[in-house]
Amino acid sequence: MTFYNNQLEYRVTLNTELNLFIVFDKKDENHFATGQTIEEAVQSLTKNL
């Protein structure tokens, strides 16, 4: 699924083996972040912009 916030469009996946959410920048798939919640992963991704 693709989501939007004020700064970027992102795609969310869940790694069920590690129980981590992975958030990918829709414009650059090499730019991603992980977190135990979607919110943590998005915050981590936006910090690296």
TrEMBL record:
Entry superkingdom: Bacteria
Protein's UniProt name: Uncharacterized protein
Species of origin: Enterococcus lemanii
